[in-house]
Amino acid sequence: MDWQTLATQLFPEGHDIAEREHFLSGTGQVSGRTVAVIGTTDHAPIGIEIALAQAQAVLQTVQDHPGRPIVILVDTQGQRLRHRDEMLGINSYMAHLGKCVDFARRQGHTVLGLVYDQALSGGFITSGLIADACFALPQATIRVMGLPAMARITKVPEERLTELAKDNPVFAPGAENYLRMGGVHAIWEGDLARRLAAALAESDALDRRMALGRERGGRHMAQQVAEAVRTGSNVGPA
């Protein structure tokens, strides 16, 4: 789905979202309420320019419109793999974006992410995945690392990783697997405007991703390990 069609379905009451060099920004109307919208399109690689543009849009919303919800529309191939960006410290720019989103949340802004096309690697981690809740459309492609790259990094044969991916969502891409792990709260179908309005109404600051992953059978130990670290206790059997 292209971003114009998505925006029309999400904001039937109207929007002024504009695109500039793969960067989306503007506002939309949801149940008579204005929300800020930022995001990317055309499988945008997140270089220093887009990372800074998104961070600026978040901080501008915090400064000019206290408490206004922020919706992040995600379509990215991950961080841009260029020597220039690496030399300029793209990791710091991505971290800055993540800190700005977290700052907005701490200032009382509800932040929702929606993967409407593609979400890969660091471009997803510092946008939709760091939001209060992240959602996806059924056709969305989501992965942090492809199996060939994972095989190179872990030295585990790709054939073995492919076999593991059949039963373990941690190794497998796709919206359904991220739903099982709790990274995606829900997959939106049907009336997207109604889905968005409900998500805004129901959102809170509690991070339920580990609990959702355990309930859905995608991450059995994450919540136990985190709780053990917090309390200094031992991890029990899965």
Structural commentary:
- It is a single chain.
- 43% of the residues lie in helices and 21% in strands.
- The protein has 238 residues and is α/β, with parallel strands linked by helices.
- It has a domain at 3-137 and 188-204: Alpha-Beta Complex (2-enoyl-CoA Hydratase, Chain A, domain 1), CATH 3.90.226.
- A hairpin with a 2-residue loop joins strand 2 (23-30) and strand 3.
- Keywords: Lyase.
- It is an enzyme of class 4 (lyase).
- It comes from Massilia suwonensis.
- InterPro entries: ClpP/crotonase-like_dom_sf, Malonate_gamma.
Provide the low-confidence segments as ranges.
none
Estimated share of beta-strand residues: 15-25%
Number of helices: 11
What is the quaternary state of this protein?
Answer: single chain
- CATH level-4 homologous superfamily of one domain: 2-enoyl-CoA Hydratase, Chain A, domain 1
- How many strand units? 9
SS class: alpha/beta
Characteristics of this structure?
238 residues, 9-stranded mixed β-sheet, alpha/beta, 21% strand, 43% helix, single chain, 2-enoyl-CoA Hydratase, Chain A, domain 1, Biotin-independent malonate decarboxylase subunit gamma, EC 4.1.1.88
Secondary structure elements and pairings:
Blueprint: H1 3-10, E1 18-20, E2 23-30, E3 33-40, E4 44-46, H2 48-64, E5 70-79, H3 83-87, H4 90-106, E6 111-120, H5 121-125, E7 133-136, E8 141-143, H6 147-154, H7 158-165, H8 175-181, E9 186-187, H9 192-202, H10 209-215, H11 222-231
Parallel strand pairs: 3-5, 4-5, 5-6, 6-7, 6-8, 7-9
Antiparallel strand pairs: 1-2, 2-3
Helix pairs in contact: 2-4
